[in-house]
C-alpha cells in the first residue's frame, strides 16, 4: 500500500507539473522544450487569502530605447495594487521576467506584507516579449534584436519616471524593486545602471555571471537528491542513467527505447537525439530540485526505490515526469521545429531561448563528473539549437563572446551595487552563478529557487525567517 500511495502521489505531482506549463494547445510540445519550460517558469505563485482589486494597465514604451531615430512604440502591461496608497506612498515594484505576470505577486506574500506596513503601492511590470507585452508582429530573428536586458531595464526606468509623473501623490515617492531568478538579476543590474531611480532592492536567486557551459547546475541538483533524499537514491539515479547510456552504446538501443516508451522516430544513432533524450531525463530531476519544498525529494526518492533495478526505476520515473504520452517524442529536430513555429505563434520559449544565445548561455550540461546524470548532454546540444533556430552566426565562438560581453558590461560577480539584498537557497541549482556569503548574500539552508517570497509563517525554518526579517529591516532603513 505504501508503494501504491507513492506512485499515486508522484503521478498527481507530475501531472500537475505538466498541466501547469504554458503549453499552446494547437501544437504538441516536444520533450526537451517541455522540460525547459518547466525550469523557466516564473517564481511560485503566492497564496491569496483575501480578495484584492488589481488594476491592469498599459504604458507606451519605445521599441528601441537607444535609437532616437526609431519612433516605433509598443504597449507594456503592468498590474497595480493601490489599496494602501496615500500621499507619498513608496512604490514597491516587482519585475517580471521570462513569464506572464499574474495577480498573486502583488496580492500576497512577503513583498505584499512589507508594502502594507509602509502603505506602499504595489506594481508588477511585464518584460517585453513575454505575456501580453509583445512589441513586434512576429518573433523572427530580426525582430528579436529588440529583445535584450538593456532594453528591458530601460523600459523599467521609463516606467518609474512615467508612473510617478502620472500620479501626483507619488511624485516624490521612493522606489524599491524585487525580482526572482532572471528578474532578480535585473534588480541588481538596474541599480548598477540607474542608481538614482531606486533606494534599494531584493534579488532572490539572481544569477550574475553569464556562462555558456553551466556545469555546476547539475552538481547542485545531485546534491539536493543526496542531502534531502539519500545516498541510495543518488546511487540509483547515477547507476540507472549510466545503464541506459550503456544500453544505447552497446547495441541494446531497441530495448532502451522500449523501456523509455520512445516514439519510433527516435534515432539512437544520432548524437543530437541522444543528447536531447538524456538532457530531458536530467531535467525531470532538475525541475523537482529547483522547486522542491517540504518533502518533495523524499517522496520521489521513495518512489524510485520501489523498483527492483536501477534502469527500470529511471525509465518509469521519467516517463511519468514527462506526462505519460502514448509515445515520447525525444527527437532533436522536434525542438528545432517548435522554436521555428514560435516565429508566428507567440510563446515564451522562443524569446527566452534567444536571450540565452544572445546574452547568457547558462546551458545546464553534463560536463561535470560530480553529478549523477551521465555524460550525454554537452553544452554543444544547446549551442547547435541556437544556430539551427536563429542564425548560423550563433556558433560556439559567438555565444561565448556574447556571454563575455554581458559580464564585461554588468560586472559579472562584481556588479558594484549598494542597497541590494541578495538571497539564495543553499540547494538552488542556480546559486553558483550568484553571490555567496563571502560577497554578502544570504544563503538559506535546504531552500531552493525563489523559495522566500511567501509571508513570514510558523513553518519557516530558522534561517528562512531570519532572512525575511533581515529584509524587512533593510526596507525600513531604505524608506526611512
UniProtKB/TrEMBL annotation:
Q: Which UniProt keywords apply?
A: Glycoprotein, Hydrolase, Protease, Signal
Stretch forming the signal peptide: 1-20
Q: Per the UniProt entry, what are the Gene Ontology biological process annotations, in alphabetical order? A: proteolysis
- Report the InterPro entries cross-referenced here: AB_hydrolase_fold, Peptidase_S28, Ser_carbopepase_S28_SKS
Superkingdom of origin organism? Eukaryota
Quote one Gene Ontology molecular function term.
serine-type exopeptidase activity
Q: Which family does it belong to?
A: Belongs to the peptidase S28 family.
* Protein name (database record): GG23250
